[in-house]
Design goal:
This protein is 56% helix and 0% strand. By secondary structure, it is mostly helical. The chain is globular, with a radius of gyration of 19 Å.
Amino acid sequence: MGKNCIVMISRLFSALRVGSRSFTSFKTPHQAAAPKQTDLPSYQKSLIWRSSNLGMLELDLLVGTWAKKNIEGFSLEECRKYEEDVLAIETPDLYKYLVENKLPVEKEPKLAENKYIRVLRDVIHSGRKPDFVGEKI
């Protein structure tokens, strides 16, 4: 590599640094933990937005549409549980669990009992539209 190339790469990495944090330490909107909110309507809106912006179009449509129809009926505790059980999962893993129907039960036994994952999988694999409200969670 020439000296100019090394200088350009060095400048690129310097530009990606913000203070002492590197660019790679930033989280996407669905990975960043939302502050524990006590204002229920704004918390619900934030969960709906995060559910609609997971970073994969299929999940954005399926999970986002389901969230728009269901989250407004959730209590504060249900919202927090939904955030922990669904939005904390990395997008590729969430796709595997919901769309490809692959639950690594031996790795994560909690997923088999996760009621939000179960309801979302049922909606996706039943052929119903994701706006189906279904059972009260």
